[in-house]
Amino acid sequence: MRRVGITGIGCLSGAGVGAEKLLSAMRGPGFPAEAVEIETIRGRRRSLRLARLSPFDRQAYLPSRKLRRMGELSQLSVIACLMARSDAGWDAAETAPPPPERRGIFLGTGFGCTDTTWAYLTGMFQEGAAMANPYYFSESVANAPAGHSAIELDARGANVTLTVGDASAGVALDRAARSIRDGRLEMAYCGAVETMSEPLLRILAGLSCPDFVGEGCVCLLLETLEGARARNARVYAEVAGTALASDSGAPAARWSRDPEAIARPLRQAVAAATGEGDPAGARVRAVFLHAAGYPESDAAEIAAAEATFPGVARTSLAKKTGAFAAAGGLNLVAAALEAADPAAEAPGRSVIVSFSSWGGTLAAAILRDGGAGRR
Q1: What per-residue string of b and e applies to 14-33 under the rule 16 or more CB within 10 Å gives b?
Q2: pTM of the entire structure?
Q3: Residues 6 or more apart from 33 whose CB is under 8 A from it?
Q4: pLDDT tens digits, one per residue of 93-126
Q5: Which of 76, 186, 210, 223 is an S-S bond match for 323, by CB 3.0 to 4.6 Å?
């Protein structure tokens, strides 16, 4: 079974463009957030804090003629993928990339293209189905961003969109890494995207969502570790083990409150990493918690982490980035940067990321230092 490395990162967040901006926010006070007053679908009003994506020049990445044909999520997804490809060194690489049919796209999003869906339905109800804008319809489906990304990057292998709430980034990473390990792909663009449109905020506010929510888009470029080292690429981290699980007792609109259920994918990820023949690589020095923002769920996750990794440092970005940001992807980027940190007190050890979502979806991923493959 082949090993998988993260060689490129594309990151768009409330902190700005790039992983370094995210890292600075993680070490500082967090993202700037604005107070918004939301009228719920039931007519009540609620105040939320929202960390919006920082504005940036999109034409620095794509010409206007292409941007015009894409909705908001599609633009963000394609740009993050292009950033990851450039960061991985493929824009200036002397070696040829894997053939198009060996490149895949795995995108996670909890809510999808709610802005264009709302615009399409508004037009249909106001002016009739015959007058509904076909552009909005084509950009209303959740897999539109992955489709645009595949066209722009000439990735003709597996193209999968996973809608698993704010655990979508973790599930996308699991599927992408498995496709490379099993030999179905040589390269995978693995990402997640989420924006907070007005209609979505109205629904979330009515469902008692956390008081602080955020936006974001990330892309991790995955390659075989052997291939990355052969071309002397920088390897941020190796995807040493992943796991998926669920808590059937979790309510449909709430996160798991069962420490044992949350601990299950953590243990499974460790077992997967150890199963690769490198028990030392599964030793965890930091746990990145999902921290959904619900006290009972957060307490259960802390209990699960302490029971599985007693005394290990715990951290989370949720209080700095907002819930839902990049469907869990920002935590994943932060963990990859932590695994690659040369100043870490315990180099060579791993970090583990916990993912959870409403309805009981659970996931975990172990990332370890890329070691000799780092440029």
Answers
A1: bbbbbbebbbebbeeebbeb
A2: 0.93
A3: 14, 49, 50, 51, 212, 214, 322
A4: 888 999 999 999 999 999 999 999 988 888 888 8
A5: 210
Contacts of residue 101, defined as CB under 8 A and 6 or more positions apart, other chains included, come to: 156, 157
Q: Which residues of 259-280 are buried (b: 16+ CB within 10 A; e: fewer)?
A: bebbbbbbbbbbebbbeeebee
Angle at 343 between CA 340 and CA 346, to 5 degrees: 80
Angle in degrees, 0-180, between the axes of helices 114-127 and 72-87, rounded to the nearest 10 = 160
Q: What domains does the chain contain, in order, with CATH numbers?
A: 4-230 (3.40.47.10), 241-373 (3.40.47.10)
In which residue are the tokens 């994918």 written?
265
Which candidate, 219, 55, 93, places its Cα nearest to that of 148?
219
Tokens read off for 283: 């030793």
Beta-carbon contacts of residue 11 (< 8 Å; ≥ 6 apart): 17, 18, 19, 21, 22, 80, 83, 216, 217, 218, 219, 330, 333
Q: Of 211, 209, 220, whose CA–CA distance to 169 is shortest?
A: 220
